[in-house]
């Protein structure tokens, strides 16, 4: 299991982050693909899956750690207005009304 810490900056602003690996008890730099695709609000589910909302495009994506890439889950104009995102029990909520 790995925990992430990232300044949850919206949009295309420069980001940085680190990952804590509880199995090795070490901090590591975020993988390049994770960092590059982190474009907005984020939520983790079961400490395994990270979801991110790209408000500029109205996209919800999840991180594929095996391929170090983000995979599109949904595209919807309501995601452009998202102020927060939460994920639990296999579902996500974007915080819009």
UniProtKB/TrEMBL annotation:
SUPFAM superfamilies per the UniProt record, alphabetical: Kelch motif
InterPro entries: Kelch-typ_b-propeller (IPR015915)
Name used for this protein in its record: F-box/kelch-repeat protein
Species assigned in the record: Rehmannia glutinosa (Chinese foxglove)
């Amino acid at each position: 299991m790995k925990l992430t810490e990232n300044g949850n900056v919206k949009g295309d602003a420069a980001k940085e982050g680190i990952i804590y690996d509880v199995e090795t008890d070490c901090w590591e730099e975020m993988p390049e693909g994770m960092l590059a695709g982190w474009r907005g609000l984020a939520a983790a589910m079961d400490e395994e899956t990270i979801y991110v909302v790209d408000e500029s495009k109205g996209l919800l994506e999840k991180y594929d750690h095996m391929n170090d890439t983000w995979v599109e889950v949904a595209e919807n104009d309501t995601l452009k207005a998202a102020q927060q995102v939460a994920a639990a029990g296999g579902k996500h909520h974007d915080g819009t009304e």
